[in-house]
Every structure is written in structure tokens, then in C-alpha cells.
Design a protein that fits this description.
- The protein has helices spanning 4-8, 114-120, 174-177, 188-192, 197-202, 209-230, 244-257, and strands at 30-38, 42-50, 53-59, 71-80, 88-90, 97-109, 122-129, 133-140, 158-163.
- The chain has 258 residues and is α+β, with helices and mostly antiparallel strands.
- It is globular and about 55 Å long.
- Strands 1-2-3-4-9-8-7-6 form an 8-stranded antiparallel barrel.
């Protein structure tokens, strides 16, 4: 079944991720999303709706608008369609970390047979998202691209995500220019701030390096955000009865009248 591998890797008693079901739709334009995921390493999960599920690739450096830049995209298990709107915290287990909905929209194949294109290892398509637009291609590399194998030995998982030259192409680093969520408009600390930061200290997904340092900073910011929301608003002191100033004014008034 399409989602067997996805479900096998997760304990749905512990993760808020949707178990999901295959959701085939008749829509001509299909859903796509990119989820920015801080787990053991920061990466971007690129997902295309097809045959009721989300075909998924992990893109370590995120998409690039520059046609000269070929981004490594490692094919991972299909995800349920419901996962496309997920944004939140995976507290422990497979994929533990913070998930941000970084981009979403629709995609249109530039080929008649998507399955044949996937089998061939050359899928051309058009994106209409908030951040990613225009013509793109996913090309399988058979593991020849540096760092593609990732220790798995399965070269078929290795693809490249490449932007075609069109009006939406350019040298702008879109991950730096537009780093925030298209769903909540926030950053990782805003997402984590809705949960309990202590969870991350006991089940920390990133244990070192750049991702670990990033997570530590995010935890600190999230704790401050949450503390700020919980702190009671300061009110001006209320004086009950007669103050010293009032007594003094009464004394002066009494002397003038006598």
C-alpha cells in the first residue's frame, strides 16, 4: 500500500502527525508543499500530490531559483495528503523536530504520464506557490551526485531539483529572503512557543553541530515568547482611601478658609 512505509516508521500515539489515507482527487491542478524541517539536520521536504498521496523528497539545502544550482533531493516514503497542511512539533521518534509549512500551492505536470516520468527519472512540472513558481524538473541521478547515497547504498533515491530558466528564475536565495511560514507567518520559535519547551530538553532531536546550536537558540526564544504571553499585564497601582497628597491639599484649603 502507498502509505505502509510512512505508517511503519511512526508511533501515532506519540506523534501529532496525521496517519492519513490515500485521497484521490479529480482536480486538474494538484497540491504541492514544502515543509521546512528542523530534525537531526535542517532540511526542506518537497511534496507533490499524486494518486492520492504526497510524493516526497528531502532537500538538504532547500530549493534554489538559480537554474545553475542543482539541489540534491533524496526520495523518501510517500506521505498522506493530510500531511500537506501539517505544521507543528514532532516530540520524539522518527523525524522528531519542528515542522514549518514553508510554501504551498499547486503543481501541474508538463508530461502526460507522471508515473512513466517517475520511472524514467525525469519529471518536469510547473509550480504555482507563494514562493516557488514557474517551470522545474526532478531528475534521478542514480547516486552519482556527491553526497547522494547518504550511507543507504540505494542510488535510486538520489534526485536533483532544478529550476528551469523563465521569468521566475534568478539568483535570489529564496530560503534566506523568505524564511517564514506561509501558514502561521512565524518562525521555528513561534511554532515551538505554542508547545512546552521542556519537551525539547528531554527529547532533543538535534544533538550537535549547526542544527543543535540552532535548536538551542530556538528553545530559548520560544521560552521567552511563551513567558511573555503568560506574564500578567502591569496595572497602575490603585490607592484606596485618602492619600498623603489629598491630606496636604485639605490642610492648605482649611488654613486659607480660616
Amino acid at each position: 500500500m502507498a502509505l505502509d512505509e510512512y505508517r511503519k516508521k511512526r508511533d501515532f500515539n506519540k506523534t501529532p502527525e496525521p496517519a492519513g489515507k490515500v485521497a484521490r482527487r479529480a482536480a486538474k491542478e494538484r497540491f504541492f508543499c514544502v515543509q521546512k524541517h528542523l530534525a537531526s539536520h535542517l532540511h526542506y521536504d518537497f511534496r507533490l500530490e499524486h494518486d492520492g498521496v504526497l510524493l516526497s523528497w528531502a532537500v538538504p539545502k532547500g530549493p534554489s531559483l538559480d537554474p545553475k544550482v542543482k539541489r540534491l533531493a533524496m526520495k523518501v516514503e510517500d506521505h498522506p495528503f493530510d500531511y500537506g497542511e501539517f505544521e507543528g512539533v514532532i516530540p520524539e521518534g522518527y523525524g522528531a523536530g519542528i515542522v514549518m509549512l514553508w510554501d504551498r500551492g499547486t503543481w501541474t505536470p508538463q508530461v502526460e504520464d507522471v508515473d512513466a516520468a517517475l520511472e524514467k527519472g525525469d519529471l518536469k512540472f510547473t509550480l504555482t506557490g507563494y514562493k516557488l513558481k514557474g517551470s522545474w524538473v526532478l531528475v534521478r541521478t542514480s547516486g552519482r551526485y556527491p553526497g547522494a547515497r547518504g550511507g543507504s547504498g540505494d542510488g535510486s533515491r538520489s534526485w536533483l531539483l532544478i529550476k528551469h530558466r523563465d521569468e521566475w528564475a534568478g539568483e535570489l536565495d529564496i530560503t534566506e529572503f523568505a524564511p517564514l511560514s506561509v501558514k502561521s507567518k512565524g518562525d521555528f520559535e513561534d511554532i515551538l512557543g505554542e508547545e512546552t519547551p521542556a519537551v525539547w530538553r528531554s527529547n532533543r532531536p538535534a544533538k550537535g553541530g549547526e542544527a543543535g546550536a540552532m535548536l538551542a537558540t530556538i528553545i530559548e526564544r520560544a521560552a521567552k515568547l511563551k513567558a511573555g504571553r503568560q506574564a500578567p499585564a502591569r496595572r497602575a497601582p490603585v490607592h484606596h482611601g485618602v492619600t498623603k497628597t489629598t491630606k496636604r491639599r485639605r490642610t492648605i484649603k482649611k488654613k486659607r478658609s480660616s
